[in-house]
Amino acid sequence: MPSNNCVIGSQGGTIAISVANERQKYIAGVIFIAPLVILNPESATPARMCCAKMLYCLMPNLILGYVDPRWLSRSQKEVKSFKNDPLNYHGPYRVRFTIQVLQAVAKLEKDLPTVTWPMLILHGEMDKLCDIRGSFLLYKVAASSDKTMKVFSKCFHQLHREVPNVTVEVFTLIGKWIADRLPPVE
Length: 186
Hints:
Blueprint: E1 4-10, H1 11-22, E2 27-35, H2 46-58, E3 63-65, H3 76-84, E4 93-94, H4 95-111, E5 119-124, H5 132-141, E6 147-152, H6 164-181
Parallel strand pairs: 1-2, 2-5, 5-6
Antiparallel strand pairs: 3-4
Helix pairs in contact: 1-4, 2-4
């Protein structure tokens, strides 16, 4: 009997789709917060993709850039908290990591139509890190008969660390979604 629910965001969403799809009978449901499902076509142009692949062969440790913490949340308190937390990665993203992410996302296309587990997808309308069109694609293409999607207006990437009223709504929605799927108490 399935018993594993998980809340996943970003690149974890990419991984979760692949892993959960391989083990569907063990998955009771998955909750996504801004999953990375497709690449942003403005930044992942064919020319840039070709350059990234060449750089991977020549200089896999070349630094491509950093994530701007201001893209994570509208809450300045949360952005500051992210910056000051030594457990958060603040270093550069290198070509090697970028290529691995690109390869993982490319594999998702074939997995999406076979997704049958229940899912809740939450995404911020103003997310600059994970293209919201990926969440719409996941919702549209997944074969699951139990899927829910909510877009949070004017919100950024980390909905669980957004302004207080959004954070409360996110956790309330998640709690209700899980409670609605628990077996009745006898």
